[in-house]
What we know:
Blueprint: H1 9-17, H2 23-35, H3 40-53, H4 56-59, H5 64-70, E1 75-84, E2 90-101, E3 107-113, H6 119-135, E4 142-147, H7 156-170, E5 179-182, H8 189-203, H9 223-241, E6 250-254, H10 258-269, E7 273-279, E8 282-285, H11 292-303, E9 318-320, E10 335-338, H12 347-355, E11 360-362, H13 371-379, E12 384-386, H14 388-391, H15 394-408, H16 414-438, H17 443-462
Parallel strand pairs: 3-4, 3-5, 6-7, 6-10, 10-11, 11-12
Antiparallel strand pairs: 1-2, 2-4, 7-8, 8-9
Bound molecules: 1,4-dihydronicotinamide adenine dinucleotide and 2-oxoglutaric acid.
GO biological process, one term: glutamate biosynthetic process
Keywords: NAD, Nucleotide-binding, Oxidoreductase
Pfam families: ELFV_dehydrog, ELFV_dehydrog_N
Amino acid sequence: MGKDYQGDVDSNLQKLQKGIQHDGLKAILEEVYSRNPEQAEFLQAVRGMALSIAPVFEKHPEYLPAFRMLTEPERQVIFRVPWVDDAGVWQMNRGMRVQFSSAIGPYKGGLRFHPSVTLSIIKFLGFEQIFKNALTTLPMGGGKGGADFDPKGRSDSEIMRFCQSFMTELYRHIGSDTDVPAGDIGVGGREIGYMYGQYKRITRDRAGVLTGKGMGWGGSEIRPEATGYGVVFLAEYLLADRGDSLEGKRCLVSGSGNVAQYCVELLLEKGAVVLSMSDSRGMIYAPEGLSREDLAAVMKLKSQHDGKLEDLELEGVEYRGDAAQPWFLDTEVFGAFPCATQNELGEEAAKALVKHGVQIVLEGANMPCTLEAEEVFTAAEGVAFVTGKASNAGGVAVSGLEMAQNRSFVPWSREDVTTKLQGIMKAIYDDITGAAAEYDTDLINGANIASFEKVAKAVLAQGAV
Length: 465
Ligand SMILES: NC(=O)C1=CN([C@@H]2O[C@H](COP(=O)(O)OP(=O)(O)OC[C@H]3O[C@@H](n4cnc5c(N)ncnc54)[C@H](O)[C@@H]3O)[C@@H](O)[C@H]2O)C=CC1
Ligand SMILES: O=C(O)CCC(=O)C(=O)O
C-alpha cells in the first residue's frame, strides 16, 4: 500500500514533485522527502495536499512558510507498551502519538490499533486530520496515535490490560486542553472505556480527555453513527445541488466496521440500494440490495471479536472470498463509498467504477483512494469525488461536540446533535464548493484549499513557534 514512493531515491523524489511547478513548493517537498524517505503513506498525503494548494501560493505567497511548518509534526512520541497475555506470557507493542498541529485548537484525532500501524501511517493520518478538523468549523488541531497491536483473537481481559498499559504512558502527553484522542480502526467504545478508566485512575481528572465515550459516562449522542451518517449527509447536499437524491441509487460500500455500518444504515434510510460490504478477507454482494435485516446481521457479527463476513448466511446475498473488493463488480453503479482503509481503491478499481457509470465517490475512510485513482475520477466526465477530509469529518465534528458537552456539563439530545452535525456537514459542503468556485477547480482541490487557508492563517498569526 502506498509503496510507489519506495525504492530508488532520485526517481522517488522526482515522483513526489511530479506536476509541481512552484519552486518554493518543490523545495519543501525535497525537504520533506529527505527527512522521511521511507514514509510512503505520509509522502502520499503531503503530495496530495501540495498538488491541490499550488495555485494558492500564486495568490498568497506568504502562506508558503506555513505549509512548510505543517509538514513537520510539533511533537511525536513513541513508547513501549508492555502487557501480559492470558497465558502469562510477556508481550510488547509499540505505541505512538503524533501531535501534528495545534494552530487552531488542541490536538484532536483517533487512535488506531492494528498490526499494520507504522509511524508513516500515523503521520499521514495526523497530517490529514489537521485539515479535516479545520473544515469542521470547530477549534481543533490535528493529531493521531495508535499501536501495532492486533486485537484479533484477543480476550476482553487482554484488550483491557493492553489499553491500560497504553494509557499508563500516553496519559502524560494528553489532556482536555492539549490533546484529546478518540477511536479509529480497532478502537471502539470498549477500548475508549478501558483507556478512559485508566486515565481517570492515574490523574483523578474526569475532564473529557477522550471522545467516543459511552452514553451515561460522558459520551455524546450519535458519536458512533456520526462518521458514516456525515458521509451520507454530504452526499445528499451534493446531489441536491444537482437536483437529485439518493433514492433508488445503486451504491457500493466497502468495509464493515463503524464507518461502513452507519454509512449503510443511513443510505438504506434514504432509499439507496446498497450492493456490498467487505472486510479484509472478502465481500458480500447483494444483487437486489442489502436489507436492514442483513445490516443488522453484519452489525451483530462485527460486534463479536473476529466476526468474519464469510460466516454470514443471508438470503439473496453472495459471499466472495480471496480479498475480493466491491469496485470490480460487473454491475451498474451510481455511488461508491470506500469506508475500509487507506489505499484500498487504486487506479484499476477507479477505471472499473467509471466504466460501470459511477457518478459520486465519497471517501468514508482516510485516504482510501490512491492519487492515481483520484486522477481517474477527476478526469471522468460528470463524476464528483469528495476527499475524506471533507466527507468523513462528521466523526471528529461530533467528537468536538462531545468536548463542548463535557465542558458545559450538560448533555444534548439526539435531535440537537443530529441537527448540529447536519449543519456542520452543510458548512463543509459550502466551504469546499466555495473554494472550488473561487479557484475554478474540482472538489478535491476545493477541500484542500479551503482547509489549508484556514490553518495557514492561524499559523502565520501565531508566528514561527
Ligand atoms: N471511526 C471514526 O470515527 C472514523 C474513522 N475513519 C476512517 O474510516 C476507516 C474505517 O475505520 P472504522 O470503521 O472506524 O474502523 P473499524 O475498526 O470499526 O473497522 C475497520 C474496517 O476496516 C476494514 N479493513 C481493515 N483492513 C482492511 C483491508 N486490508 N481490506 C479491507 N478492509 C479492511 C475492516 O474490515 C473494517 O470494515 C479508517 O480509514 C478510519 O481511519 C475516518 C473518520 C472517522
Ligand atoms: O473523533 C476524533 O477525534 C477523531 C476521528 C478520527 O480519527 C478521524 O477523523 O479520522
